[in-house]
Amino acid sequence: MRLSIKWLRQYVQFRISPEDLGQRLTSVGLEVESIEHLGKVFDGFVVGEVIRVRKHANADKLTVCEVDVRRKGTSPASVLQIVCGAPNVQKGQKVAVGLIGAVVPKNQHDPEAQPFVLSKLKVRGEESNGMICSEYELGLGTDANGILVLDETANVGTPLAEYFGLNDIVFEIGVTPNRPDCLSHIGIAREVAAILRKKLAIPKLKIREEKKSNINESISIKIENRRDCARYSARLVTGINVGPSPVWMQTSLKAVGIRPINNIVDITNYVMIECGQPLHAFDYDRIQGKQIVVRSASEGEKFITLDQKEHALSASTLMICDAKKPIAIAGVMGGMNSEISNSTTSVLIESAYFDPASIRKTAKELGISSDAAYRFERGTDPNGTRFAADRAAELMRDLADGKIHKGAVDEYPRKINERNIDVRISQVNRVLGTALVASDVKEYLLPIGIRILKNSKGRLKCIAPTFRPDLEQEIDIIEEIARIHGYANIADKMVSAIDFSGMTTSPDEFHEIRRFLEGSGFSEVVTNSLVDLRMAQMFSDRVVSILNPISKDLSAMRPSSVCSMLQTVSHNNNYGTKDLRLFELGRTYETVRKEEKGHPVPGYAEKEVLALCLSGRREHRGWDSSDKGVDIYDMKGVVEALLNKILLDKFHFIYYDSHSALTEQTIAVEKNGTYVGFLGKVKAELLRKFSIENDVYVSELNVQVLVQSDEGARSYSPSSKFPIVTRDLAFVVERNVLAEDLQRRIVKIGGKLLAQIVLFDIFEGKPLSENKKSLAFSLQLNSSEKTLTEEEVDSVVNGIVADVHNTFGAELRSS
Amino acid sequence: MFYPEYNKTFAMAEFQDSLAQSITSLRAKAEEAARTIATTDALEKFRIEFLARKGSVGQLFEELKSVPPDVKPKYGKLLNEFRIFVDALYQSAKTKIESTSAETDTFIDLTLPGRGLPLGTRHPITQTLDDIKSIFVSMGFGVVDGPEIEDDYHNFEALNFPPNHPARDMQDTFFLDKDVLLRTHTSPVQIRVMKERRPPLRVIMPGRVYRNEAISARSYCLFHQVEGLYVDRNVSFSELKGTLVAFARAFYGSSLKYKFRPSFFPFTEPSLEMDITCFLCSGKGCRVCKQSGWLEVLGAGMVHPNVLRNVGYDPEEFTGYAFGIGVERTTILRHNIPDIRLLFENDMRFLKQF
Ligand SMILES: [Zn+2]
Hints:
The complex is a heterodimer of chains A (815) and B (354).
Chain A: E1 2-4, H1 5-8, H2 18-27, E2 31-37, E3 45-55, E4 63-68, E5 79-84, E6 94-98, E7 103-104, E8 116-117, E9 121-123, E10 126-128, E11 131-132, H3 160-163, E12 169-174, H4 185-196, E13 209-214, E14 220-223, E15 229-238, H5 247-255, H6 263-275, E16 280-283, E17 291-296, E18 302-304, E19 310-312, E20 318-321, E21 326-329, E22 333-334, E23 347-354, H7 356-366, H8 371-376, H9 385-400, E24 403-406, E25 409-411, E26 419-424, H10 425-432, H11 438-445, E27 451-456, E28 459-464, H12 474-485, H13 511-519, E29 523-524, E30 530-531, H14 533-539, E31 556-557, H15 561-574, E32 580-591, E33 604-615, H16 632-647, E34 651-655, E35 663-671, E36 674-682, H17 684-689, E37 696-702, H18 703-707, E38 725-734, H19 739-750, E39 754-764, E40 772-781, H20 790-808, E41 811-812
Parallel strand pairs in A: 13-24, 14-17, 29-32
Antiparallel strand pairs in A: 1-12, 2-12, 3-4, 3-6, 4-5, 6-11, 7-8, 9-10, 15-23, 15-24, 15-25, 16-23, 17-20, 18-19, 20-21, 21-22, 26-28, 27-28, 30-31, 32-33, 33-37, 34-35, 35-36, 36-37, 38-40, 38-41, 39-40
Chain B: H1 8-14, H2 18-35, H3 40-51, H4 56-64, H5 72-104, H6 124-138, E1 142-143, E2 149-151, H7 152-155, E3 180-182, H8 187-196, E4 201-210, E5 222-232, H9 237-252, E6 258-265, E7 268-277, E8 294-303, H10 305-310, E9 319-326, H11 327-335, H12 342-345, H13 348-351
Parallel strand pairs in B: 1-4
Antiparallel strand pairs in B: 2-3, 4-5, 5-9, 6-7, 7-8, 8-9
Helix pairs in contact in B: 2-4, 2-5, 3-5, 4-5, 6-11
Zinc ion binds at residues 278, 280-281, 285-286, 288-289, 293 of chain B.
């Protein structure tokens, strides 16, 4: 449902911004799906008056105009000099002027061009401070040959949007099927009035009828199918002049997406959009026998609707007929044979209530969707038919010179009454968890049209209006109370509402890490955090020592988990287990300056760390395994995989020359510039202190930094649908060239098409000369857009080969 | 075995010259060679000897060039038939080798163990912790932690241990400084959490605590606790009991028998300890339950009004309960581990069992 704010303001006054109004409507269940500022394209365009015109001295076809735009303030001035190329510009014209900074929707010289911004120009020596626009340039039409000349009564300085009546804002509202009352401006105005506590002003009708002609002499209604047509009201208007409807009505209809046709059709549409009651206008003179008969069609009966399509009807189709023939499919679409034409002078306005299920069935069967059927099948107000008919008749009198016959015909054989619904305040509060009292409830319900007849002992006798067919029982009224009270004003209670922010609600925040490591064959250890003071001092100069230790070997808090790890390795080696893959999630402790912030107890820092340890054979020992021992690449591989898993690519390694006191082959890990930890090979002298003979590789990573994830759920990125081309390249380089440097360079030069690169072989020795090595990379090339041709692949590969030759002196190794 | 029969009489009757003789002798040789083919190498050798371009049959085709033109077609036909015959010998030997090699050439011992993957293990303490935490998280408890290095205020004073009160002797303490110590229980986290937040509050606080006690099979200088806390309006003792029973049933099994008995902790009042039927002896009495038939599994109580006041809560408005579960004790009981020190040795032979 498109809602024009300008139109809405006829029924309710409010000050809040359209955006705020949109939010309020959404919060009561009328979801505002979009807000469109209709005149936005004309920001920066105003009505101007050409007050002087002279020929451009240096150009035949150009004129220099002075245009009054009556802008207040000094700059831009009230009168602008504008150079114009149009042949039809003349003094005294009211014209559409684009000011400096305005965005012109269309370019006269290039239909494909983007909108462009007006700036101050000099055109062959003459200053031009804006633009007098053509219909084409404004995007309003196709005429590009001359400027658009506006109505001479237009007010100079008026924003162009306002001049065109486009200073309107339109909401697209997703009206749920239970709310047919909100398929109209008055219906939504009622909601707006209720939520903003404003007065709803429905137009009061004072119908001005002709005294002499009585409608009953001209038409009678006979309802044969009372089940599907509970009510049929009609008005007769004669002496009509069919023509275009006034600009305001056309603008209003266009704003809500309805194409203006002629004043009579426009009026019926206007009234429908206003109050939700679909109307149909028959050319009275084409109705035979002064009679309307509402009956079911006979099976197979043919009928041509006004969109010139022939339909075969079924016995369940409800038809509007005259004495001789069908003239409309009730509630769905009128027929060609009674359509309003330019020569129509008398109009019978139909305003009826049809059974929603019947209309829905017919519309589905015939495959017709119309604004009328859309409303009827959701349920119109059976007691609103007279209002709509009268409103339309009045408008036809005003806008089409019509004369309204005295009286209305109004058959209402099956009266539909308002519903009585009992509402218990206690039940309201029980369901909503609120503490509302009867007066609150009254205050919420009255503005939306629900009256309260009686209030005794917390029991309200409510009367639901007939425009709200969705209100049937107590719970429906409770929902209304909740809506208007505001869902936001109902407390978010749980049995007890716990604020879990800043807590983990997962039983193990390091779950991912643990699972990864267990899956990778690591065994978890839990070690004593108390260690020997002298031992601790080897790892740190900020050791936390214990004043009253049990014994000397438990006299300090460990500053590094490496010492606990080495103790564990030593213990296991002593009992014959040499192949070890261990991890521990635990804390390390150090003293810090008392002033340092962020520590619960000043002067002491605790860090949650992950310790990894590898020692012994690389492979699980078996009949087919190698006896090779682990090395730094095993540890680096584990750390890489772990970091890749939890951090994706947000980490990098830093390579130290082995200057760490405890490890050699040391590699540091950083995440976005923050130190995460290190890995390395434990120095032999340290191993000796623990009586360990095998090499031991350790890593210690700050897990708090690791799991501090700034990412939400990972989003999908599409994989290429095109084949991958693999090329293997072996480069011979100086031995001291770093593999990572070479690889990075290849990745850079390979660009987007290089999907993956793997270093798959390293070779030194004969036949390569001394100080040389060969690094062999496998390159996977792939495009997300197409299948790569041999030439394209060659071009990338050749580019890489040439580049690394220049940067690293790398030679392609001949096979 | 099927050979396409080669018409020997045809060869003998019509051709008496050298070419025919060559064919005759070659045929015998090929038949003999084909019979003895047993390996793919021998098969290949046969192919090269007879069928390759320079092989014996090929040679005969070379000789055909010098045969007079009038008899050439006859010889050609004869040679062709001979080549088809030798080729059939070859194919048949090949089929024989292929059908036998799969079964006999490589013997696969399916009893060999699979190539091993290293198996990681989760420490039994962590397993117990995970299980306890999961149960409480599913009951709507959040998880928070606090520092192991604590001050006297959080570890004792705020928890209603007055200075110099004998209650402090219940927990032997490691000191780092005059007022700084290694926490003796996870209860100080209660104080930190309550001071940071407002009720309703429902958290568990797992963590490592320290006791300055002689290390033995029954006690270690450190262990883990899971502290629990729930503060809200109208939290009752009956709810505490209900929660603990729900936990114990989830952890130890639904058929569990239990009892509550009054106890004393300075920071709760009334306080309780929960015992469950010894699952090792089914309540008959054993070494582990010290013949009582009951195992003490946790301590708990209603948060003392003094504690609530210390954190700025009005005891008239709020009530709460707190509990503490010893993880090592639970682990030892659960896995029937005789010595607590085994948990901290991290011997792979021990760890692999869990
Ligand atoms: Zn027992």
